[in-house]
Amino acid sequence: MDRVEIECSEKDTKPDVLHRSKELRYFFDRIFPKTINTLEVYENTCSHLVPSVIDGYNACVFAYGTTGSGKTFTMTGTVNFPGIMVLILQDLFKAIQDKRSEKDFSIKMSYVEIYNEVILDLLIPNARDQYLDLREDPVIGTVIAGVTEFVVKEPKEVMNLLTMGNKRRTTEATMANAESSRSHAIC
């Protein structure tokens, strides 16, 4: 296993992570202890995006990590411990409700998977047969040509679409999955 060392000399500075097998440096805005709850992660990383989205800017929250590191739990959560997606949707729809008299809003949702450099639409059946392409639109910039968009009016609609899309995600066995399956089977 590769060793990763974290060096942080002063409070409120970005930690410098050096991957010892290669001369690569990684910088992180924040590193949280494993005991932190998802609400605190949301408040410290994503909540500030809502006003910008209300003002018309695009935003992206991206979870990256190894299998079993908690990406899905952090993003989707559970009924009792909502994930970042649920929290941001609640704040977004509340902010829209507060601004309805000032602006007219239309919220559209797409859900894609990028896996092995192939883009799939997770909101349509049999998407495995229809790869999508990135294209440049002269007016709006980079778009995913042919992606399905659903108009949504409340967080529950978005979560229902995400649940449907999650069932169509690609999953592959890895050594981490195999170890996890074995340990659960033994228990």
Summarize the structure.
By secondary structure, this protein is of the alpha+beta class.
Structure, described:
This protein has helices at 38-45, 49-54, 71-76, 84-99, 155-166, 175-186, and strands spanning 4-7, 16-19, 24-27, 107-109, 112-115, 118-121, 133-137, 141-145, 150-152. The chain has three domains: 1-31, no CATH class; 33-103, no CATH class; 106-170, no CATH class. The protein is an alpha+beta fold and 187 residues long. The chain has a three-stranded antiparallel sheet with strand order 1-2-3, with no helix packed on it. Strands 4-9 form a two-stranded antiparallel sheet.
Mean pLDDT: 80
Largest sheet: 3 strands, antiparallel
Please report which band the strand proportion falls in: under 5%, 5-15%, 15-25%, 25-35%, 35-45% or over 45%: 15-25%
Structural class by SSE content: alpha+beta
Number of domains: 3
In spatial order, strands of the major sheet run 1-2-3
Strand and helix layout:
Layout: E1 4-7, E2 16-19, E3 24-27, H1 38-45, H2 49-54, H3 71-76, H4 84-99, E4 107-109, E5 112-115, E6 118-121, E7 133-137, E8 141-145, E9 150-152, H5 155-166, H6 175-186
Antiparallel strand pairs: 1-2, 2-3, 4-9, 5-6, 7-8
